[in-house]
Design brief:
By secondary structure, the chain is mostly helical. It is built from three helices and no strands. The relative contact order is 0.09.
């Protein structure tokens, strides 16, 4: 369970929230601008739309903007999560590769040390190191 105010220190959660906020703002603008233009057209040509109260017209406008903001925020958040998963997968793969390279270097160093010991002992015996 998270401690109180622990999200203030969680950079992943803060970055995801910032991306969702940007998505919500863009989505609200994407739907709000066309809806505002549609409202202006409605005011100009529709007696039914002109007959609605200002409060209801604002409600319709804000409902569309809210829906657009939610859809865009969700889309951006899913894309961000996929990006984070890809980054973490690459980091894991790089860590595995570094461990493999380290292990390979250790084995090569060990094989070189064994070969050197074999040559040294053959030289002490006065032999040719097993080569005939």
């Amino acid at each position: 369970m998270r401690a109180h105010a622990s999200l203030a220190k969680d950079s992943d959660a803060n970055a995801a929230a910032a991306e969702a906020f940007r998505g919500a703002a863009v989505g609200a603008a994407k739907t709000g601008i066309p809806l505002a233009l549609l409202a202006l057209v409605g005011l100009a040509i529709s007696p039914l739309y002109r007959g609605l109260t200002v409060q209801f017209r604002l409600f319709v406008q804000m409902s569309g903007m809210t829906l657009g903001g939610m859809v865009e925020a969700d889309r951006r958040l899913r894309e961000y999560e996929a990006l984070v998963r890809r980054r973490r997968r690459v980091e894991r793969d790089e860590a595995v590769w570094r461990r493999y390279e380290t292990l390979l270097e250790e084995e090569e160093a060990e094989a070189g040390a064994v070969a050197k010991r074999g040559r040294d002992s053959a030289a002490r015996r006065g032999g040719d190191g097993g080569n005939k």
